[in-house]
Amino acid sequence: MISTLYIVPTPIGNLDDITLRALQILKKVNIIAAENIKHTSLLLQHFNINTRLISLNNYNEKQKTEQLICKLKNGINIALVSNAGTPIINDPGYYLIKNCRQSGILIIPLPGPCAAITALSASGISSDKFCYEGFLPKKSNIRQEILKKLMYESRTTIFYESPHRLLNTLIDIICILGKERYVILARELTKIWESIHGLPAGELFEWVKIDKNRYRGEIVLIIEGYKKLKATNTIISDEIIKTFKLLYQSLSLKKAADITSKIYDFKKNIIYKYAIEQKINTKK
Ligand code: SAM
Predict the structure, then answer these.
(1) Which whole number is the average pLDDT over 193-206?
(2) Mean pLDDT value across residues 237-243
(3) 230 domain residue, yes or no
(4) What is the Å distance from ligand 1's center to 88 Cα?
(5) Quick one: 187 and 244 in the same domain?
(6) 108 and 6 in contact (C-beta within 8 Å)?
(7) Which of 58, 60, 184, 230 ranks highest by number of CB atoms within 10 Å?
(8) Percent of the chain scored above 70 by pLDDT?
């Protein structure tokens, strides 16, 4: 007798965001596999749910998966929850789901809270096309490498960020994507101190750094996608100059100006003239 594995999102701050269906499922299953038993116990207590809990986290997932699949194959229904939001989204559960699929076990996902989507919905940045990048690496040089790869990403990009890394991450965003790139800082969503603030990266950095409260708590960063500048524009931006300089390290002045002008749909002769005037036309 094969039963069901339910994926159950839980609130990201405000307990009222639990869905009626999530409560029904958490009550009716035989076991809840939780990222942190203590954390989920408090949630269950709040809603008077007494379902048995077992732990499933990043450290024991592989070992627990086998046991859980065995239970599922023997008619036990299981709900998977994480500490907050949608399980699997930067939370444990991927290995379990993958193996349940391979074993032909029925998986029923419930819709519900997710910090990335909650932040995106209020960002005012295009959400027709977006990509989710999870957490950026802790080390600045590796973080910069990732940002370089995203330099010309035209889709909106969503990151999760920790409060103690926020200022350094903003510095890297300014360095790589330019101070004009528009960024939304969504903090403490659904909680008392919720704040959603959007500014060009340079201004956002200045705004955040003057008050510690502006980088406390849980954070989602949303970065506007790369936009080509119009050919009618004659003001050369920091971003254009940076790209030109990067290309000029390995190409001729003419070729670097040519490619930069194509990337930004910007007049080649202005880049060329700028390089001559600013004496960028000599390689070090
Ligand atoms: N599975 C979760 C989801 O669906 O959003 C994400 C889990 S991940 C381990 C935790 C990160 O999500 C936090 O460090 C923060 O970046 C983001 N996050 C979670 N809750 C948040 C909230 N209330 N406001 C802003 N960001 C939040």
Answers:
(1) 97
(2) 88
(3) no
(4) 12
(5) no
(6) yes
(7) 184
(8) 96
- Which of 113, 143, 175 is a domain's end point? 113
Is the per-residue pLDDT at 230 higher than 60? Answer: no
Q: Residues 130-159: what's their mean pLDDT?
A: 97
Kindly indicate the confidence band of residue 232, based on its pLDDT and cuts at 50, 70 and 90: low
pLDDT of residue 273: 84
| Domain membership of residue 260 as a residue range | 238-277
In terms of DSSP bridges, do strands 106-109 and 130-135 run parallel, antiparallel, or are they unpaired? Answer: unpaired
- The number of distinct structural domains making up the chain is 3
CA of residue 85 to ligand 1 center, whole Å: 7
> What does pTM read for this prediction?
0.83
Does 147 have pLDDT greater than 80? yes
Q: Which of ligand 1's atoms lies nearest the C-alpha of 115?
A: 5
Interatomic CA distance for residues 199 and 258, integer angstroms:
31
Same domain? 200 vs 139: yes
Q: Which of 53, 80, 113 is the last residue of a domain?
A: 113
Task: Tell me which residue has its CA closest to atom 8 in ligand 1.
Answer: 90
Flag whether 31 is in a domain.
Answer: yes
Task: Assign residue 47 the CATH number of its domain.
Answer: 3.40.1010.10
Atom of ligand 1 at shortest range from CA of 161: 16
- Ligand 1 atom 20: the closest Cα is on which residue? 12
DSSP state at residue 79: E
Among 145, 154, 157, 152, residue whose Cα is nearest residue 221: 157
Centre of ligand 1 from the C-alpha of residue 219, in Å? 7
The CA-atom distances, in angstroms, between 247 and each of 58, 240, 263, 264 are 42, 11, 11, 13
Domain assignment present for 228: no
